[in-house]
Specification:
The complex is a heterodimer of chains A (about 200) and B (about 375). Chain A is an alpha+beta fold and about 200 residues long. Chain A folds into 2 domains: about 150 residues, Immunoglobulin-like (Sandwich), CATH 2.60.40; about 30 residues. Chain A contains 4 helices and 11 strands; from the N terminus they run βββααβββαβββββα. A 5-stranded mixed β-sheet of chain A has the order 6-7-3-2-9, covered by helices on one side. Chain A has a 5-stranded antiparallel β-sheet with strand order 5-4-8-11-10, with no helix packed on it. In chain A, strand 2 and strand 3 form a beta hairpin. Chain A starts with a strand and ends with a helix. Chain B has one domain. Chain B has about 375 residues and is of the alpha+beta class. In chain B, about 50% of the residues are buried. About 10% of the residues of chain B have low confidence. In chain B, helix 6 runs antiparallel to helix 8. In chain B, the strands form 2 sheets. In chain B, strands 1, 2, 3, 4, 5, 6, 7, 10, 11, 12, 13 and 14 form a 12-stranded mixed β-sheet that branches. Classes of the chains: A alpha+beta (about 200), B alpha+beta (about 375). At the A-B interface, strand 1, strand 2, strand 9, strand 10 and helix 4 of A face helix 1, helix 5 and strand 8 of B.
């Protein structure tokens, strides 16, 4: 067997000196869910660990996690039709330090923002991520809406995906399906028939 | 039976019959060629049992996991040393055990699929030898900075053709759902079988180096994927290309490991606006992933994808000259494929998913 490399890098080039920040946004009629995954490359692990582990005791305490999450969220913004939204941190998951130093540690921040009452029709949600721009690569995507009332019509991003504008249509509450009405009507008719027959027997 | 009751019953039965006929038309998976798929499952089960027969109690305990458990989503593109895999490690096996595993894989996968998997694994061996050269003091091939030659954390990484792991989730069965999981650096095959049905989603074929020499020939484990995609983007007219090409850079997989259960909004050019030859090219690209599994399962899968082709999108990010590093995505109602160069053309990650049937969810739904 004889193998030689005919290509560029001969060593694994997993993300080393970049901070991958991947945002996924889900729009519901009354709220937006934003999930942000932060994965530092191996070469960035030590400074990121130091930024989180404030007392340098080798672990991420709950308080340290909240502080770091809070810092990140001050650099993330959402607005709908130009109206800023208040983002709240609903939960977070931090890897252990060893995982982060191995390059497999992803911090996951789960946040949400309540939407103001909006009229049916077209709207635009805008997301911006200004966290650590000098050494970050970004991904930002809208998820397929869970609600029938929301239809995403377009997404526009800046070239590095630190900004994402999602155009969507808000529909009114869905009508009950005509099939459901028909089946319900038949069920009622059957019940009435049975009642009439019973009354007829009783009389 | 009294008249009102008879009429109501007839109407109800008619409604139920109508719903049954119309309800599953668009997105159902066409039934596999019943005999061939069942026979293939039986052969895979036999091959899996043959592997088990070569193992002692300790080996069997290592390879078997519950069907529903954390092992199902415990797969990654990362190498050993960063990601700890469970299961039977090829490097720990005897030659007879390795032969049994190879027989299992060649039964479960198509001929091209088995070739692709083998080439990915062999490429990891090439990567490992390159790392060893770097450690010995010579420059890593290609002169990559920050490579394994510096030791340190990278010194714990292991790249090798036999650093791959096999696991069975559930008991190999010709009827009940179970999963064959095989993977290592740059490879994750998650094949769920349930009688005549199978799903290979999610799976992750990747490659580094993307090109190497073996026995006098040039090997590109993901060469077809790359070349067919560049052919398609260059076959589009100006209007189609404008829809297909994203105006932003995509640096990595969006739905890679750890992103189960998420469906992003499709983007790009819709297949319904492609010409018939262009659609054929698109389907041919998809086959590079869907066709990794045995043909008996790949054909109904391809038929399902063709059924939904009109709602399938092709998106592109990056240059359109073959030889460049460009990202592309193919997304339909039952399909997500991403192809993401990692900073250059020699290191590629891809993902293959079915948002409606990852891990054979449809087969094992209670």
């Amino acid at each position: 067997m004889c193998t030689t490399v005919a290509g560029a890098a001969g060593v694994s080039a997993h993300r080393r000196d970049e901070y991958l920040q991947a945002a996924r946004l889900a729009i519901d009629p009354a709220a937006v869910q934003l999930e942000l995954d932060l994965t530092p490359g191996i070469a960035l692990a030590d400074p990121i660990v130091a930024a989180i582990d404030g007392n340098a005791d080798g672990s991420f305490s709950g308080a340290e996690q909240r502080v770091y999450a809070g810092k990140v969220m001050t650099l993330v913004s959402l607005d709908v039709d130009g109206t800023p939204l208040s983002i709240q941190l609903d939960g977070s998951r931090f890897p252990d330090i060893a995982s982060m130093r191995r390059g497999e540690g992803t911090i996951r921040l789960q946040t949400s923002a309540t939407l103001p009452p909006l009229s049916s029709g077209a709207h635009r949600l805008r997301f911006r991520n200004r966290h650590d721009p000098d050494r970050s690569v970004y991904l930002a995507n809208a998820l397929v809406p869970r609600s029938y009332q929301i239809a995403v019509t377009a997404q526009q991003r800046d070239t590095v995906q630190s900004e994402l504008a999602i155009d969507y249509i808000l529909r009114g509450a869905p009508p009950r399906s005509s099939a459901a009405w028909l089946i319900g009507g038949i069920a009622v008719a059957m019940a009435l028939s049975v009642l009439r027959m019973r009354r007829g027997r009783d009389q | 039976m009294h008249a009102p009751l008879r009429i109501a019953s007839t109407v109800c039965l008619s409604l139920f019959a109508a719903a049954a006929v119309t309800g599953s038309a668009q997105r159902a998976t066409p039934p596999a060629s019943a005999d061939s798929a069942a026979n293939v499952t039986a052969r895979i089960v036999a091959a899996a049992n043959a592997v088990l027969a070569t193992l002692d109690d300790g080996g069997r305990a290592k390879v078997q996991f519950p069907f529903d458990g954390p092992q199902k989503s415990k797969w990654s593109n990362l190498p050993s040393g960063i990601f700890q895999r469970e299961g039977l490690r090829l490097a720990d096996l005897t030659p007879a055990q390795r032969t049994a595993v190879n027989a299992l894989l060649s039964t479960a996968l198509s001929r091209d699929g088995y070739r692709k998997v083998t080439e990915i694994m062999r490429g990891d061996g090439v990567l490992g030898r390159g790392q060893a050269q770097g450690r010995a003091g010579g420059p890593p091939p290609g002169g990559a900075a920050g490579g394994g030659g510096r030791g340190g954390r990278d010194g714990n990484l292991r790249f090798a053709e036999d650093e791959y792991f096999l696991a069975f989730l559930g008991t190999p069965s010709v009827t009940a759902p179970w999963m064959l999981q095989f993977g290592g650096h740059h490879l994750a095959i998650n094949l769920t079988l349930a009688g005549r049905q199978a799903s290979m989603a999610p799976s992750l074929p990747a490659a580094q180096p993307a090109m190497y020499e073996f026995e006098g020939r040039t090997v590109r484990p993901l060469g077809n994927e790359n070349d067919k995609a560049f052919a398609l983007i260059n076959a589009l007219d100006e209007g189609q290309r404008k829809q297909a090409i994203l105006t932003y850079r995509v640096s990595d997989l969006v739905l890679g490991p750890g992103k189960d259960g998420q469906t992003i909004q499709p983007e790009g050019v819709r297949a319904s606006s492609l010409t018939a030859p262009q659609q054929t090219m698109l389907v041919d690209i998809v086959r590079e992933w869907a066709g990794i599994q045995n043909d008996a399962f790949a054909e109904p899968r391809m038929a399902e994808i063709r059924t939904n082709l009109a709602e399938t999108y092709f998106a592109w990010s990056g240059p359109t000259t073959n030889g460049s590093a460009a990202y592309f995505r193919i997304q339909g109602p039952t399909l997500v494929i991403e192809y993401a160069p990692q900073g250059g053309v020699d290191h590629i990650h891809t993902i293959y998913r079915d948002p409606t049937n990852d891990y054979g969810a449809k087969f094992s739904r209670k």
